[in-house]
Sequence to fold (796 residues):
Amino acid sequence: MLAALAGLVYSGVKESMVYFYTPTEVREKTDAVRGKALRVGGMVVEGSVRWDPQQVLLTFALTDGQSNVPVRHRGTAPDLFKEGAGAVVEGTWAPEGYLRSSNIMAKHSEEYKAPTQAETLEGKKALFKSLLPGEKR
Amino acid sequence: MISTLGHFVLFLALGLSLYAAAGAVFGARTRREDWRASSRNAVLAQFCLVTLAIFLLEYALITSDFSLRYVANNSTRGSLVRYKIAGLWGSLEGSILLWAWLQSLFSALVVARYGDRHEAVMPYVQAVLQGIAAFFLLVMTFAVNPFTPLVPVPPDGRGLNPLLEVTDMLVHPLLLYLGYVGFSVPFAFAMAALITGRLTDEWLKYTRRWTVIAWLFLTGGIFYGGWWSYRTLGWGGYWAWDPVENASFMPWLTGTAFIHSVMIQERKRMLKVWNLALITLTFALVIFGTFLTRSGILASVHAFADGPVGALFLGFLALVLLFSLGLIAYRADRLKGHGELDSIVSRESAFLLNNVVLIGICFTVFLGTIFPLLTEAIRGTKISVGTPYFNRVSVPLGMALLLLMGIGPLIAWGRASWNNLRRNFVKPILVAAAGTAVVFALGVRQAEALLAFCCSFFVVGTIALEFFQSTRARARATGERLPVAFAALLLKSRRRYGGLIVHLGVVIAIIGIAVSSVYKVEREVTLKPQERLEIGPYTIQFHDLRAGEQPTHVLVWANLSVSKGDRPLADLRPGQRFYPNQQSPFASVDARYHWTEDLYTILSTFERDGSSATIKAMINPMMAWIWIGGVVILLGVLVAVLPERRLAMLSVRVKAQAT
Fold:
């Protein structure tokens, strides 16, 4: 019975091991990571996020301060994903030299940081002027 | 002012806890009733003090007294009162205070109920419970003080994370904490039994109901958390094998094993050490879970706080394990079981297997959760195992558990005869075969789903057979009509039939889990106004995007209409909520919930001029069965634990109506 359990755990672990790397490590070990399941953590590079709505494709770069890794993600970003913030991307390393993401995990904390400049509800409203009733074209 | 007072009250409560623990032990050792009485009073006084501390913090939260750092971090002036109240368990310091209060409450309840009786055991039960309460008070007084002042006083607080400003926040955390704290009662009785050497079944008898109620709260908390996540978090799932979720699941598994294994000890005087170890493990896993979630040692989507708390919890965990395992070793000579397994084909062996499987699942979940720590320690790299690992190992073990759920309650004690096996299992096997053939004919081809259905039909077959045979036997013997006989039966052996109803609930939930995960359909498409998206039998038409101002946020939503064939079905409005001071929006899901399948829609993203929206749609078949299963489990537990008197009244009424 114990052997069966051990076998189950072993095969489960073998099938679903995900290596945790930083962008620099990915760059250094390109041969080792090819085709493997990876989890890469870093910051989303400012200005790198591109969103193609027709293909539902999100592209961006992750950085650890030293190296960048390009990421392609089919689908939309999770709620807390944004440029300059931390994110962990799970996926596989494509031979073309980018991380094919299957899952993005954005970091969040229960006490959020004090905003640099207090923002009001009016400020948020201004963003969606054209969608608000009365102000619609 | 409130800061000084609050901190002082916590110190005082800590002092009283230590006195209540030490005084009880001293009174018991010296056989002095005055000390015992005095220590019991200290328990009640300690409870009053921690209650006062809760009131102080709640008062500060409700009146927006931002001179307390905790209030400034977890509350804003603009929030509804109920979310100001919920701020108490919004983050670490308050959660610890709530835990300490519940621990004091349970401790006071136990002392009030049994305090003046069982004078050999109770002082030690009290000492253990107060020792645990003292730990939480110690954490607050020396590491994470909820009454820390804040200077200068800010004009407004930051408020709860908007994700937490939902009614569910008032239910889910409380249920979990009640479950966690509840397990400390059987743990305390077990320790008292070990200390005093009174290792008969006494401690099991007193704690049976406490254990089942703690289990109910924990189960309810886990189910409710899944339900909350599914309806609001906007990823269409309910369970992610996240470390924080696993932290609540592990004590649930060992607690479930404990509830079953005590039955063997009651019946056969076996497994004494095993039961003590199981309840110790359950309590230790509760503390371990808090350590995991509070130390920030593992990355998780749930919230974290860094700091000395992790180390304190780890130290306490070590203390609990050393103390309890040391006691078990010390009493080893008195813990020899009386019985032995007569046969492998028997109820006790089915229960034993159930325990092995539950502990097996617990172990694999534990391993998966701490895997990154292990690999980092051994190989220097963090390697994690994700959802595929957990699914792969838990599905076969879950199926084994399901089978045992059918076999265990019906197979005979001791040694099952051929006759017993034939009478109880031939019909359920036929039910399983017929049911599986039907779902196969309906188009279910996937192996895992078929297996889940087959095992589920088998269990339902055994439960139905048991209810039917016993009801008929009673109706024949007493001349009652079948419904009356059925109700009378439920009331007479509530523990057994309540348990079977719980099993039924588990089966319903497992069918929901299996079918919804195997047959989930998902599409994500960008639509221009009036464009359509086809998913399964549904057509979803996107009309337009709108925005509207809500009291606390701006809501942007998509107007969708759903039809099936030519028949209009529902209008859905998935959206995104934009909060001031939050850079990212929060999802606002909308779905058509139905007992056969849910159509779930998410507004993933959109163009601000309203020219297009990206909609994610999902069909989650039989998802509702998971929640229905949870409700059936609740009903089953209520049947099993409701007080006799209440039920006696009910049964009189049933009989009166029947005549």
